[in-house]
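B., you asked whether I could sanity-check this one before it goes into the benchmark set. Here's the sequence:
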Amino acid sequence: MQTRITASLSAVLLGAFISSGAAAQTRAPADLVPVKPPPVPNLAPRGAAPAPAAAPAAPAQGGNQAKQLGDEMECLLEPHLVAHVGAAVEGTLSEVLVDRGAVVRRGQVVARLNSSVESATVNLRRAQEEYGLRKMARNEELFKKELISASEKDELETQTRIAALERKQQQEVLNLRTITSPLNGVVVERYLSPGDRVAQEKIMKLAQIDPLNVEVIAPVGLFGRIRPGMAGEVRVAAMGGSYKARVTVVDRVIDAASGTFGVRLELPNPGNRLPAGLKCNVRFAG
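And here's what the prediction gave me:
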């Protein structure tokens, strides 16, 4: 009797287990709950505004972009010429005769290289030339008296001419060791001092500021209306005056990014009364 009860109970439990397994296998996928991804953390500092979207860069516009021909335009005073002065040969600087701010003239000696060897060679060639000239004068009488042949006289004259040419050659070599100013202007900067070795280095920077260049960036709408030879009145607020200038250069290539072109006027500056580098305003005569 007890054995039958135990068997019946086992059968009931086995049937319940099989039923629960079948129900689990036939559950619809719609009953599954999707898992949401975690939110992305905000790493910006507390209270910081969100970064704006990047905007396309706009082309730069000059201060004269909307100017008309009769309007006053911004400009800049620049040197007429700038020269970085060096030496034609290698050597050691023996002296620098000018410093920053000095006024120099074209051809003025501004520096010298050590030239003791070259000077001695020039003196030697000069002595040889002078000796040949004295010998020619003495032998001229001998030739007239037919005491020397024409061939001997020609050889002596040729040697004397060669000595003169060698002396001139050595003089030119010596001259290369003397540095002169290529323009009338002022010393902007001095780079080297006596004792410095010079190969391809620049010794000083010179600038010619008489006349001055007046540089203007004009809008493309004025292209063809501003012409070389046109007069302009330049006002320099820092110096409290107005000056007459004349257009010398009009660029023939337009800058596509800004829609502008360059104009240059020439402003006489006797006595270097105006310094370069000042901002100015110019009005073109229509």
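One thing to flag: Confidence is low (pLDDT under 50) at residues 1-14, 16-35, 51-61. Otherwise nothing jumped out at me.
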